[in-house]
Amino acid sequence: MLIIAACALIFAIASPGYAANFDWKLYGRASVAGPSFCFYEASSVAKASGGNTRVWTKCLAQKDLEGVDPKSNLGTEMVNEAAKRLTAGYVPPIIVIGGMEFNQAPDIVAYEEIADHSAIEPQSLIFIELNCRERMMRNLSTSTFYNGRRGFNVEASDWDYVPPEGNGATLLKLLCTRQ
């Protein structure tokens, strides 16, 4: 079942012109094959047995995010939507928790819009499980895309303690406060 869900999500993300049924939120940066920004899919956050939290994440190359032409039809639509969200008072979660500065909001919202609506191939797509009480995490499914090569692992990794800083700590801060 996990394989089917992973394949469906990968197909939806990689398919040009897919419907925007996603709500990707920026949570950090990484260096996969160069600088990239990482997002969690807010509408996929779910409770697993035992009270753990599961969520899909993806990292997109910074050059791909910045390469979206704001004058194209899709680019114009994303710029307009980002402006509407900011005007309506939307503040990205990464800013709310103090992970980034408020003056970065326009760029963050634009990147979230691009992540929601574009067909940029992610450098990584990971289904993560968080044990909020123990401050631990593990990968349930991992897909990587690097230099034209794809890798896929559906075996759950071992549980690791999350260090006090970094992307794992940010995910805990964003997603475990609900408990």
Describe this structure in words.
- With 179 residues, this protein is an alpha+beta fold.
- It has one domain: Lipocalin, CATH 2.40.128.
- It is built from six helices and eight strands, in the order αββββααααββββα.
- Strands 1, 2, 3, 4, 5, 6, 7 and 8 form an eight-stranded antiparallel sheet that branches.
- A hairpin with a 2-residue loop joins strand 6 (136-146) and strand 7.
- The longest helix has 15 residues, at 73-87.
- 32% of the residues are buried.
What is the compact description of this entry?
Helix content is 33%, strand content 29%. By secondary structure, the protein is of the alpha+beta class. The longest helix has 15 residues, at 73-87.
- Total number of distinct structural domains: 1
Q: In CATH's first tier, which class applies?
A: Mainly Beta
Helix amount: 25-40%
From the N-terminal CA to the C-terminal CA, the straight-line distance is 27 Å
Low-confidence stretches: 1-19
The biggest beta sheet reads: 8 strands, antiparallel
How many strands appear in the DSSP assignment? Answer: 8
Backbone shape: globular
| CATH architecture type | Beta Barrel
* Number of helical stretches of at least 4 residues: 6
Q: Strand-and-helix sequence, N→C? A: HEEEEHHHHEEEEH
Oligomer kind: single chain
The radius of gyration over CA amounts to 16 Å
The proportion of strand residues reads: 25-35%
CATH fold-level name: Lipocalin
**What is the residue-averaged pLDDT?**
84
Find the structural class using helix and strand composition.
alpha+beta
